[in-house]
Design brief:
By secondary structure, the chain is mostly helical. The protein contains twelve helices and no strands. α4 crosses α11.
């Protein structure tokens, strides 16, 4: 004789039914994830590997062709000397360059200058990602060596994708036969810094009426901040923008350990010109 189910038995059956439903729902929720894993395995299958290999071949071929058609860069120091004469500037030597200027430039323009081979891949990827997200050519990601190559061989004005590719190849060539000191001296002699000035020596005389070796920390920080935008950061025509940029340089120098926080604060309160 079948008796009537008690409350506890009915509760047990209800829990089992609910548990079964949850298991079914759980399997259903796992199915899409499983499908994605299958898709990923297919993506990483032979076709994807062949596509990746083809892309590598194209990139290698493009690099080889660009390496052949671009200048050797072994004439770079000769070109710099000719430009020094044309612009009535004197070539800088390592002894003439204040160490705070080098520190400031490395902090703001190329933090891996002394360790990279002319190209900072991480910086390139970061800049490309920023430009892609914001749909603009806002960040260059250029190293000091790339900027030198652009100034000497591309007249400092080619911002196209092809021009950036040339910058990279030329920078690798330059670093093959020049020391970091030679690269830095050439860059400091040829960088454009506004008001028609070429090189740090000319800029120091134009803005501060004194030799580069006599400049204070605040003045050197201002000069180091100008390469990003000489016209927009000109301390004569845009003093507020130049002051903000100088503060950015000093703060970055302190953050990187080149100067103390107190030195940065003291320099920030110095006159701009």
């Amino acid at each position: 004789m079948i008796g009537t189910l008690g409350p506890r038995e009915r509760d047990g059956d209800h829990k089992e039914a609910c548990g079964g439903q949850r298991q079914v729902q759980s399997r259903q929720m796992e199915d899409p994830a499983h499908g994605r894993r299958v898709t990923l395995r297919r993506l990483l299958g032979p076709r994807f590997r062949w596509w990746l290999a083809g892309l590598a071949v194209v990139a290698t071929s493009l690099f080889a062709v660009t390496w052949i058609v671009t200048p050797t860069t072994r004439d770079l120091l000769g070109r710099v000397a000719e430009l020094d004469t044309a612009h009535n500037t004197s070539p800088l030597s390592a002894k003439e360059v204040p160490h705070y200027l080098v520190d400031a430039l490395v902090a703001m323009e190329d933090q891996t200058f002394f360790t990279d081979h002319g190209v900072n891949l991480e910086g390139l990827v970061r800049a490309a990602g920023f430009d892609l997200i914001h749909l603009c050519k806002c960040q260059g990601g250029s190293t000091i060596t790339e900027q030198l190559a652009e100034d000497i061989y591309l007249n400092g004005s080619d911002r196209s994708i092809w021009g950036r590719w040339w910058d990279i190849v030329l920078a690798l060539k330059i670093e093959d036969h020049l020391t970091k000191t030679q690269v830095l001296d050439a860059y400091l002699s040829q960088v454009r810094l506004g008001e028609g000035t070429v090189g740090m020596s000319q800029a120091s005389v134009t803005y501060f009426h004194r030799a580069l070796s006599k400049d204070t920390l605040a003045q050197l920080a201002l000069l180091a901040g100008l390469p990003q935008g000489p016209a927009l950061l000109d301390p004569i025509t845009h003093p507020q923008a130049a002051r903000v940029r100088r503060e950015d340089v000093l703060e970055q120098m302190a953050l990187d350990g080149y100067i103390s926080e107190s030195q940065a604060r003291l320099a920030e309160h110095q006159p701009l010109l």
